[in-house]
Amino acid sequence: MRQNYILLKPTILLILPIICPFQPMYSPETEEYLVKIDLHPDSVLVVHEKLERLLPIHSHTKGQLTYVDGGIAYIHVENKTYIIPARHYVWIPKGLEHFVKVRNSATVTINIYFYTYDDAQSPFYTQLGIYPVNNLLLEMLLFTGNWAGFIEKADLPFAFLSAIKNILPHLGTKSFPIALPTTSHARLRPIILYLSQHFAEPVTLENLSARFGMGQRTLSRLFQSAMSLSFLQYLKLLRVVKAIEMILQDDKSTSEIAYLTGYNSLAAFSKAFHQLTNIRPSDFGKNKPLHQPSLSHAQQKHD
Questions:
Q1: Predicted TM-score (pTM) of this structure
Q2: Which helix (H) or strand (E) segment is 100 a member of?
């Protein structure tokens, strides 16, 4: 039987074509990659990449587990952007339109695309979720760097990969709650862009409405109708998302991050952070990866 996967030696690193990281776009390489995912529906496809890839919005017939080792990523679904912090993975059910953006190109991204014939065993497999990675799962995910390509039922690694899928519902089903809404509303988009650049400043509904030439009541209703959040709720959420980025990517103290995200006191920052994440910012920082991605992690070869 011809093997569809590659058994990798620790020194081998297979490089994928780099796709433009600035915006989702289709190219022949991208099209080939997306089509290939759904080939061999009863198999598992293992893809390790050490590059920044931004696929266009898409869906596939397999369930997807994505883990970013050493950095931060985002998954865009409909009108929301979910943050995938360090030591967390995202489960993407089949048929869900999405795209994933990796923030740091130096990280290793592990993508495992699973068969779906047994998804009815647990509702876990039918829902989008972002979950913590414990030590057991982390070691199993890193070990998949020994392979690349399609793993069929008759292949020796198939049992190991199936074990990963089977244990996911038992490792915890409490999903990470941070989702930052996005919008295509013509009047609101420049305001959202402004907030993303000035979130650390003392922004109020009053000075924001004056800057963009609309009444406070109008702007308030616009946020509620387009984002399903009030202005204050959105600003609070944005600041916490920015704080998470700083915690995971910088060496700043919690107090520094509090002031850099627009809070006048550490207590107020910690309260807001805990309300949205159910964890204190000082504890959240402990989830930073303790190791650097290894060159033994492979990238899927597309010939």
A1: 0.74
A2: strand 99-102
**Per 3-state DSSP, what percentage of the chain is helix, strand, and coil (rounded to 5)?**
40, 20, 45
Q: How far apart are CA 108 and CA 96, in angstroms?
A: 23
Contacts 24+ apart (CB under 8 A), 224-232: 226/183, 226/185, 226/188, 227/181, 227/183, 227/188, 228/181, 229/181, 231/205, 232/205
Name the strand (E) or helix (H) holding 48.
strand 44-49
Question: Which of 162, 190, 200, 158 has the alpha carbon at shortest distance from 63?
Answer: 162
Can you give the pLDDT at residue 187?
92
- Return the bridge partners of 44, or none: 151
Confidence at residue 132, expressed as pLDDT on a 0 to 100 scale: 85
CB 234 within 8 A of CB 196: no
Q: Give the range of the structural domain holding residue 70, as residue numbers without chain letter.
A: 5-170
In the numeric block, the tokens 């869900």 are attached to: 96
Domain match, 235 and 161 both: no
Residue 290 located in a structural domain: no
